[in-house]
Amino acid sequence: MTGTADSAGPTGPVIEIRGLHKSFGDTPVLKGIDLTVGAGDVVCVIGPSGSGKSTLLRCVNLLEQPTAGSIKLLGVEMTDPDVDIDRVRTHVGMVFQSFNLFPHKTVLQNLTVAQRKVLRRSAAEADAVALRNLEHVGLADRVDAYPAQLSGGQQQRVAIARALSMDPAMMLFDEPTSALDPELVGDVLAVMRDLARSGMTMMVVTHEMAFAREVGDRVVFMDDGQVMEEGPAAQVIGAPRTERARVFLHRVLNPTAVEESELGQTEPPQPGDPDYLAPAGGRGPGGRTSPGGPRAGGGSEGEGHVPLTVR
Would 121 disulfide with which of 2, 6, 126, 229, CB 3.0-4.6 Å? Predict the structure, then answer.
């Protein structure tokens, strides 16, 4: 073991990743990731689905076992066979896409159970810490509610308060707003924004580009299991250097925009083409009659007329 989390200095890297590889069977998911997160940094990880973002985050605290490479948290080598993983994890708060609250426990109980069992706090101390953090996320009035009685946004804020109640040195967020209705996203992002302003070290996997640009100190763009681009948020999101990042951000920031080359349109049929429909009153190849032309039976317009229906 290369050290303990309690002895790590506050000025060194909080997260240090070198040469990280992860495969599921024969499928490589992470391909040599290098990343450093300093104390107080907010690093946002963006990229298309399947690029390895969530796997990277889960490898940080060994929820996924790396195939190769080095991960240090607060100076502790997490891949060391002798590392006390549970001890290091007490310094890491993690918020998932799903809220992972205990459905049979109240909000207050969800925040105190780990404090009492892991940190050995007294009931009074655990309650005080929980109430303080619920106040911080704006849910001090819901201490006796059960998760099923809360909205998705409220449940996610409870999950953040629960993580903060363990007094973590860093927070990992795995797309915390992806499961929420759009109108509930803002409340969760506001809590995260306040955390960042308080100096919390944060690594955030997100599709919220406005949040990443406003709050992130650095943005990491991943694709195909690799870091394709990394730099200040304004540069990566506002003026990406790589073509892959430019294409991704264009689609995310302009979701209704479609390039002409992507439309798959062809030229309309021309006279002489089998699918050509002649102007009203005429006939195309093969005797196809256009709307408004003569009808079988010789009836005039309105007599026995079946309108053309476009489905």
Answer: 126
